[in-house]
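In response to a reviewer's request, we include the raw inputs and outputs for one of the modeled complexes. The two entities were modeled together in a single run.
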Amino acid sequence: MSEEKIKLSKKDRNEWLSLLLRIIDLCKAIERKGDPFEVDVKKSLETLKKYLPHWKFLDELLLDVEALNQLSLIVKLQGEWVKHRASSLYIDPLMVELKIRALAIEQLIEIFIKSWHPIVNIQQIFPSRLKKAMDYWNQLPPLKERFRKDEVIEVSPGVLSLSDLLALKILSEEEFFEKIHNLRIELESKHDGFDYWDFITRDSFEETVIRAYLTSFLISEGYARLKIDPIEERMILIPHKVGIKSAMPRSIAISLDYEGWVKALEAKKNVGRG
Amino acid sequence: MLEEADVRRKLKRAYQMLLFQRYKAPGVKGWELKRVLGKDYVKMIPILREDLEKMGLDLKIISERGENIDESSIEDLDKARFFIIFKEPPTQTEIEASGFRIDDLACLAASLAYIITHKGKSPRKDVEQLLKEKFPQWKVDLNLDRFIQKGYLLQDKDDILYIGWRTRAEIDQKTLLSLLLASPTSINQDMK
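The model returned the following structure tokens for the whole complex.
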């Protein structure tokens, strides 16, 4: 009992722990190959018992459990060893090894054959299975079709014309002309025109895009004109009562993306508040 | 009369099951035979043996743990695997048709004898070392892998080789070792 009360120094503790590790390593080595009776199980167990009260930390206790587990495996191996020695199959391994090395290949084969009783089994294809296999073959597409990759053709950005939109059924002809008509009336309500961005910008991005598209159609058809003020950096949309096509038409690209729409919407709201 | 016909019909079905390889490994489980032969299938095992003996065959029963068992324990039999084997060792012609080259069989014989005497397990490198004395390394590797694949040997993650289920079913281990020790070697002959 007095031994249990001894306070361990750090050095002693490390030494004891390394002893545990040595027991574990020895057991593992014997397990792989070796005589299980080389391990002095009794002495090792006494060592574990002596050290157990001094372990404080979880890692130390886990190491103790591991050592105990390894020792129990050695006891199991010792049991198997005794059982094997007692069985009729026990023959000195060294003697057998020498015999194997000394025997000619033909002799080894002869011995083996005399103790061999091969398993008998049939591997047969039945007509029903064969029919299923034929059906499978018939419906199986050729390899080049099964492994064909989906081809993606890269297309550069283009312009969708009214006929394209009609063909894609995004718009119907009636709906389109009705929208154009309404937009014209709205545009004509102010003779001095609208700021382009104020005119097309609406509360949703989708609606803004549609109005931009329809407005470009009105300009192309001569029902409106775009006046650009480079000093104030403004574009004014001026209505025409009748369609007047310019003798020298010009193309102006106006980019409209989501971020541009957000900015335009904010600017419109600020102007409204002002 | 009817009862006898029923028994013959069930036995016929049992032979088909035993002979036909349905999965990767041949043979059937006891519970599969029970389904065909009925609850008292254990009583029919001697009839099966008798029929098979007439054709030079035998019924081998291997427990779930890979040990030879007899018909005494019904519980063990349910989980055991049943095989039909040759009653007598095969003839030279039969061996040639088995697909094994004669030197492959020598490799197998040496590996098994070595592992059996090492309590049924041995590190693969030790077996390789032994076989390399008489066969090139590539042949040793190829053969050991083939024996594992066929079930003659088992290998664990630590490269330890064990006796496989097929060895327990096909090889009379006691006879193998007895014959090995009894056979005259060149050393013995030199000593004479």
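As requested, we also summarize the result in words. Residues 35 and 41 of chain B are 9 Å apart (CA to CA). Chain B touches chain A through 58 residues (CB under 8 Å).
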